[in-house]
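Lecture 7 notes: from sequence to structure.
We start with the chain below.
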Amino acid sequence: MKLRNKFKSLLENLKLANKFNLLLILIFLSSVLISGTILSDLLQERAKEEVTSSADILIQTMRSVRDYTTQEIIPLLEPKQETSSVFIPQTVAAFSAREVFDNLRKNPKYRDFIYKEAALDPTNLRDKADSFETDLITLFSKEPATQKKSDFRTFPTGKTFYIARPLTIEDPSCLQCHSTPDKAPKSQIEKYGAQNGFNWQLHKTVFAQMIYVPADQVLQSAYQSWLLIMGILISIFTLVLIIINFLLKKAVIKPIMQMSKIAQAVSTGKANSDFEQKSNDEIGTLAASFNRMKSSLEIAMKLIAQKNQKNN
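Predicted structure tokens for the same chain:
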């Protein structure tokens, strides 16, 4: 309450120009805060859409590689694998997709991108799901209607945006290599062992297709854009504030101060000056009213003087 009273007292003691300046500054700060918040949200959303688009394109590309491997490569290599004692990893769609993506990462532009078919119990341990990916696979298993999850994730190398999609065992031929070790090709057991990648079941989600897109650069770019636009807005608001303040002083404050000086002079008996009426606005109307009041005062003073002379 005391603070409120002090502020009220301070406000009452401010000159008119300072009150206008205070009001303009409050409007300026409110405008900057509101516009800055809205702009930040828009730029962040745009940055998220940008990384989402990149991640979506890459994950769809990897799905196409998997489909191509399943439909075109496996039928060509299966006969050769059946007659050979050597396991051919290219017959595994996940292996093909991972190799294609690793080749893509040789391009510096995609060096920090990550593709992984994270599995709870993979044949190749490089595809072993970490705790974060395990939770996603569990979610996909419990909620079959959920076909996509995406959000930001922080790695030691920086912030990344991920897209995760469930991969479900729908092809019975997959169980030939992943049901039990005794049914798997001997060349597969020799290469990867008999401990991992088995007991998979049809129509079960056992792994998630993951794509990680570095987001730090995009988010930093959005932040720099925000700083640039906010700098421009602040400059414009500041310029507008200066112009309004200048016009306010010239059109309102200065005429009022002049009228105040003349009114003070008139009140002490100095009636030689008239109130200047340079416009037809409210200030001009006020000046005309003061001039009429001054004229009325002069007439009244003359009548009083004449009456005093008669009485003397």
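Points to note: The first helix runs from residue 2 to 13. Residues 33-223 form one domain.
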